[in-house]
Amino acid sequence: MADKPAIVLVHGFWGGAAHWSKVVVELHRRGYGDLHAVENPLTSLADDAERTRKMIGQIDGPVVLVGHSYGGAVITEAGGLPNVAALVYVAAFAPDAGESPGALSQELPPAAFENIAPDSDGYLWVRQDLFHESFAQDLTADEALVMAVTQKAPLVSTFGDAVTAPAWRGKPSWYQVSTEDRMIHPDNERRMAERIGPRKTIELNASHASLASQPGAVTDLIEAAAVDVAGR
Q: How high is the mean pLDDT of the chain?
């Protein structure tokens, strides 16, 4: 395991670190022992990027930094640290400088955009009764129910926080597109992927929750980045 890089997994909106559970198990099965999953507060992009930087800062050696959904914006903002050797985007935002997830979504609204609503305290939620069809239509009803009930809502303002210095401009990247994504428009994912010039792009016939519905294929992509890092 010593020759393998550390892997840091960053979740997105409406979930926590446990969204990576199936990928964690698969990575461990493949011999990756230095695994970390950030638990972001989802209070602002600055807060989430700083939390991610602090975790990366505890790791000696190269890191493959992986982001799902809004976690892609986080790794874009936090991934400039010297020991971050690769970025992997999983059905994720990959904003350029000055861009926010909210603005990118408004340019090309996803199918389930109307199923997201703020509460009276300023947090943004996916409607529980529509979570399965919106976020995870290729998971079982029970799996989607757990995700819906345990969803971690971001502050509405976080959706408008813009990236300042995109790490993908200086780091090798990999990207996974979910062709049936209803939370980020698949064509938006394709557009962002093309712009960052990844070393590899894969398309999965998957929902936004590809990390849970197709963990094997997602892990394959992470491993491709890890092998590239190990070979340098």
A: 97
For the stretch 74-103, what's the b/e string if a residue is b when 16 or more beta carbons lie within 10 angstroms of its beta carbon? bbbbbbbbeebbbbbbbbbbbbeeebbbbe
Angle at 60 between CA 58 and CA 65, to 5 degrees: 75
**Single-letter residue type at 8:** V
Phi, psi for 184 (deg, rounded to 5): -125, 125
Question: Computed from CA positions of residues 11, 104, 137, 200, in that sequence, does the dihedral angle turn out positive or negative?
Answer: negative
Helix (H, G, I), strand (E, B) or coil at 67: strand
At residue 3, the pLDDT reads 87
- List, in sequence order, every residue forming a beta bridge with 38; answer none if it has no partner: 10
Model pTM score: 0.97
Q: Report d(CA 163, CA 158) in Å as an integer.
A: 11
Structure tokens at 9: 């997994």
Looking at the DSSP bridge assignments, the partners of residue 68 are: 90
| 81 secondary structure, DSSP code | S
- Is residue 1 predicted with pLDDT exceeding 80? no
